[in-house]
C-alpha cells in the first residue's frame, strides 16, 4: 500500500488482460488452435511455442507480439496469426471460455454506484475487448472501451490521453498489470494502481505504481473515506 492518500477519482481506467480478464483461461485453448491452423495452412512447420511465450507478451501491441512469438515468421504468417487470433478468441469467448478475475463484476458495480466513471484502455483489438465486456455482462458498467486497435494508437500513453480529453476527465486512477499501464498513467499525470495478481509479467513490471493490490476488492479500500 502507498504511504500517501490517494485522491478520490472522477474516473477509473482499467487495462483488460491481466487486470479484469484472466487471459490464460482463454489463450491456452486459442494458442493451440491457432498454431494447428497455421500448420494446416502450410504457414508454420515447427512445434507449437509454449503458451507462456504468448502470455508474456500481453500488454504489447499485437503487431509486436508475433515478432516475439514467431520471430522467424514472414509478414504473411504474422498477418494470418493476427486474423486467426481474433477469430478464435471471439469464438471461445462466445462459447463462455475465459474468466474474469474474482470479484470483478461486483467491485466495478460498487465503484459505479459511488458515481465514478469506468473505462477500459487496452492495447488489444476493439472487437476482442467488446466481446469480453458483452459476454461477461459487464459492458453496461463502462462509460467507454478504448483500444489501440480501435484508435490506431502507437502507445497506451496516447490512448489514455485521448480518453481523458474526450471525456473531460481531470482526475483518474489507472489500474493495470503491465509496465505499459504504469507508463500510461504516469505519462498522463494519473495515480497508478498495479495489479499484482496476474500469473504473468516480470517481477519489476509494476515499478512506479502508487499502490499494488493482490485482490481486486482492494480498490474499494483505497477510496478516501471523505469521498
UniProtKB/TrEMBL annotation:
InterPro entries: HAD-like_hydrolase_sf (IPR050155), HAD-like_sf (IPR036412), HAD_2 (IPR041492), HAD_sf (IPR023214), PGP-like_dom2 (IPR023198). Signal peptide: none annotated. Transmembrane segments: none annotated. One of its GO terms (biological process) is DNA repair. The keyword Hydrolase applies. The keyword Hydrolase applies. GO terms for cellular component: cytosol. One of its GO terms (molecular function) is phosphoglycolate phosphatase activity. Keywords: Hydrolase. Pfam families: HAD_2. SUPFAM superfamilies: HAD-like. NCBIfam families: HAD-SF-IB. This is HAD family hydrolase. It comes from Paenibacillus sambharensis.
Amino acid at each position: 500500500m502507498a504511504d500517501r492518500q490517494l485522491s478520490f477519482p472522477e474516473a477509473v481506467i482499467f487495462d483488460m488482460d491481466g487486470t479484469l480478464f484472466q487471459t490464460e483461461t482463454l489463450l491456452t485453448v486459442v494458442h493451440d488452435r491457432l498454431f494447428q491452423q497455421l500448420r494446416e495452412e502450410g504457414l508454420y512447420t515447427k512445434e507449437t511455442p509454449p503458451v507462456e511465450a504468448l502470455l508474456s507478451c500481453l500488454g504489447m501491441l499485437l503487431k509486436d507480439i508475433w515478432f516475439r512469438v514467431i520471430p522467424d515468421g514472414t509478414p504473411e504468417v504474422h498477418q494470418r496469426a493476427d486474423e486467426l487470433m481474433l477469430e478464435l478468441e471471439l469464438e471461445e469467448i462466445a462459447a463462455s471460455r475465459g474468466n474474469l478475475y474474482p470479484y470483478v463484476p461486483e467491485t466495478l458495480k460498487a465503484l459505479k454506484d459511488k458515481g465514478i466513471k469506468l473505462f477500459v484502455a487496452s492495447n488489444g483489438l476493439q472487437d476482442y475487448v467488446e466481446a469480453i465486456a458483452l459476454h461477461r455482462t459487464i459492458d453496461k458498467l463502462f462509460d467507454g472501451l478504448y483500444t489501440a486497435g480501435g484508435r490506431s494508437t502507437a502507445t497506451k500513453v496516447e490512448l489514455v490521453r485521448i480518453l481523458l480529453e474526450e471525456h473531460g476527465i481531470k482526475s483518474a486512477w489507472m489500474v493495470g498489470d503491465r509496465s505499459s499501464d504504469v507508463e500510461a498513467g504516469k505519462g498522463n499525470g494519473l495515480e497508478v494502481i498495479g495489479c499484482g495478481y496476474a500469473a504473468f509479467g516480470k517481477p519489476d513490471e509494476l515499478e512506479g505504481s502508487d499502490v499494488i493490490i493482490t485482490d481486486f476488492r482492494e480498490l474499494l479500500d483505497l477510496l478516501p473515506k471523505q469521498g
